[in-house]
Amino acid sequence: DLAKEIREFRSPTDGETRMFYEIVVAPGYTEKGLEVLKGKSKTLRILEAKRSGKNMLSLRQVSGGWLAQESDDLTPEDITFTTGSERAPTDSELSDAKFAWLCVKHVKSNAIVIAKDNCMLGMGSGQPNRVDSLRIAFRKAGEAAKGAALASDAFFPFAWKDAVEEACENGIGTIAQPGGSMRDKDAVDCCNKYGVSLLFTGVRHFRH
């Protein structure tokens, strides 16, 4: 079914805007799935990537040696949120927050992802502070960011007149972040003021 949907996105028959995909990656494919994906397309690259085991080490080369650390192998089933705000997220906001949290782990720190309806609307990455990343993400998302979920790969060191308040003022509906800052309460108070749902993950994705 997924293969059929992807094929229809690439070559719609109902006049809808065509969605262009260059690569599809999955743990495996059925013969029927491959047949549907290949279809008439000669440009779609179909790759198979087996799932790796959990708790494997991630290696990075540093000057004079290697850095070994636990892999960030988060799956959708692993995500648990703690609601820190007065307002709990709606079901759709919770779904958007989970998707954004999965996406942000693949983005270079400082990382911000804005998502809605299982679609990444904007991201900001590789900036020296979270505010710059946030503004880049909003610039990409535009008006679509209204009511969307925002995920930050690490905690917000400040809230008022900083990234959290700016996100709230721009219409974000839900914010997901690890927590652990000395000023977490400021983030909670700020979200409560604007009626935004704030979710704590308890783990961070921070990567350079």
From TrEMBL:
<dbReference type="InterPro" id="IPR016193">
    <property type="entry name" value="Cytidine_deaminase-like"/>
</dbReference>
<dbReference type="GO" id="GO:0006189">
    <property type="term" value="P:'de novo' IMP biosynthetic process"/>
</dbReference>
<dbReference type="InterPro" id="IPR002695">
    <property type="entry name" value="PurH-like"/>
</dbReference>
<protein>
    <recommendedName>
        <fullName>IMP cyclohydrolase</fullName>
    </recommendedName>
</protein>
<dbReference type="Pfam" id="PF01808">
    <property type="entry name" value="AICARFT_IMPCHas"/>
</dbReference>
<dbReference type="InterPro" id="IPR024051">
    <property type="entry name" value="AICAR_Tfase_dup_dom_sf"/>
</dbReference>
<dbReference type="GO" id="GO:0004643">
    <property type="term" value="F:phosphoribosylaminoimidazolecarboxamide formyltransferase activity"/>
</dbReference>
<keyword id="KW-0511">Multifunctional enzyme</keyword>
<dbReference type="GO" id="GO:0005829">
    <property type="term" value="C:cytosol"/>
</dbReference>
<keyword id="KW-0808">Transferase</keyword>
<dbReference type="GO" id="GO:0003937">
    <property type="term" value="F:IMP cyclohydrolase activity"/>
</dbReference>
<keyword id="KW-0658">Purine biosynthesis</keyword>
<keyword id="KW-0378">Hydrolase</keyword>
